[in-house]
Design goal:
Elements lengths: L1 E9 L5 E9 L5 E8 L23 H5 L4 H13 L3 E5 L2 H14 L7 E5 H8 L8 H7 L11 H19 L3 H7 L4 E5 L2 E4 L4 H10 L6 H14 L15 E3 L2 H6 L1 H13 L3 E2 L8 E4 L1 H6 L6 H11 L4 E4 H8 L3 H5 L28 H7 L9
Parallel strand pairs: 1-4, 4-5, 8-9, 8-10, 10-11
Antiparallel strand pairs: 1-2, 2-3, 5-6, 6-7
Helix pairs in contact: 4-6, 9-11
Length: about 375
């Protein structure tokens, strides 16, 4: 197997003017390095952009304009990226794949289809940062060799490989193992659709079951919303006072206890209850001890629940202890369970689901915790 890292420069943030790549063996020994200069057939707009930093490329505009068009290099680039038995690597690959899509559509060419590993997303998990980080910034933080030129595609591709190699060395893993540790950094560009793993409900649930902290708050919200819409009772509805009730938890509880929230949503569904974040449409609100002690803070679901209870006698606020008694389980017992792995609801309702069998926690966070480092500790 070989590794191929690539990088693209554009004349205006959209149209390709440079495609660079580096090929190595599995030990990251460089076998080939090349920079392809392309006539973008568009004006260069890389400086003086409102809200954007200035970018200076390694060649003159005349050199770019005197080069062949993308059509001249299409087959070469397509064969490079679509070759089997290789790992394609990039930094913020969704951007570069998008540039390729733009070029293919511009010249009415078939899409270039390939799978990839994104060093930007991998580094984000490695360093436990939420915001995207530039290649130069990651290079500086990991003290990698500085390239001779920034924004020269082949040298940026080499820097991408060095970043991935540094993460592998520090974690004492191979690249395939790093890809297993960070599945959210893996993705594909197929038929003009660019997609990362971990965005489907099934993938998010698998992540929550292994390491809830590996999901961003945005993904936690999407996961809970999709799960609540798709979940089905596990057998016949259990008769209880929860039958037919609409309910919700507080957002802070969901973000800090996403696995517990999902498990409770399943058990409540077994009791014929439906999760709904719109408090005004609900019959129940499940409050944490913290919410009860702190009182109704402005613009929270708990505040809306308090207001509704004051005006409607049939609205009830339960504590989690009261809820656990109603569904006949303790929090400790519940957290030993696995999150039900279900598929997102489509037009046809899903069949009855059961708890997953569970898998080993094999994320980057787990590996670092084994080394005595917990990068996912609660804030």
């Amino acid at each position: 197997m070989r590794y191929l890292a690539f990088d693209i420069e554009c004349c205006d943030g959209a149209h390709i003017c440079e495609f660079g790549y580096v090929i190595t063996d599995e030990d990251f020994n460089v076998k080939e390095q090349k920079d392809i200069i392309i006539n973008p057939e568009h004006k260069f707009r890389l400086t003086g952009r409102p809200g954007g930093r200035d970018i200076y490329l390694s060649f003159t505009e005349e050199q770019y304009y005197s080069s062949p068009l993308f059509t001249e290099y299409y087959e070469e680039i397509k064969n490079l990226l679509e070759r089997k038995d290789q790992v394609v690597i990039g930094h913020s690959v969704s951007s570069d794949a998008g540039f390729l899509k733009t070029a293919c559509k511009k010249y009415n060419l078939p899409p270039i289809n390939f799978s990839f590993f994104d060093s930007q997303k991998a580094y984000g998990e490695y360093a436990n940062i939420k915001n995207s980080i530039s290649l130069e910034k990651a290079e500086s933080l990991l003290e990698l060799p500085k390239p001779e030129h920034l924004h020269k595609s082949d040298e940026d591709a080499l820097l991408t490989l060095q970043l991935v190699q540094a993460m592998c060395n520090r974690l004492e893993v191979t690249l395939p193992q790093l890809m297993e540790l960070c599945p959210a950094a893996c993705g594909s560009s197929e038929n003009y659709m660019i997609r990362y793993k971990g965005n489907s409900l099934e993938e998010m649930l698998e992540t929550v079951d292994k390491n809830p902290s590996a999901l961003s708050n945005g993904k936690k919200e999407r996961c809970i919303a999709k799960f609540a819409k798709s979940v089905r009772p596990q057998g016949e509805i259990i008769k209880s006072k929860l039958n037919g009730k609409n309910y919700c938890f507080g957002r802070r509880f969901e973000m800090n206890n996403v696995k517990l929230a999902l498990l409770l949503i399943q058990l409540m569904k077994n009791h014929g209850s439906t999760y709904n974040t719109k408090v005004i449409e609900n019959d129940l609100y499940i409050a944490t001890d913290e919410e009860i002690i702190d009182g109704a803070q402005p613009n929270t679901r708990y505040a809306m629940a308090q207001q509704k209870r004051e005006t409607q006698q049939n609205f009830e606020i339960l504590t989690f202890d009261e809820l656990y008694k109603l569904i006949g389980v303790t929090e400790e017992e519940l957290l030993k369970s696995h999150v039900p792995i279900i598929k997102e609801c489509t037009i046809k309702k899903e069949a009855e689901k059961t708890f997953s069998t569970g898998k080993l926690d094999n994320t980057i966070g787990a590996l670092l915790r084994d080394k005595g480092i917990d990068i996912f500790s609660a804030e």
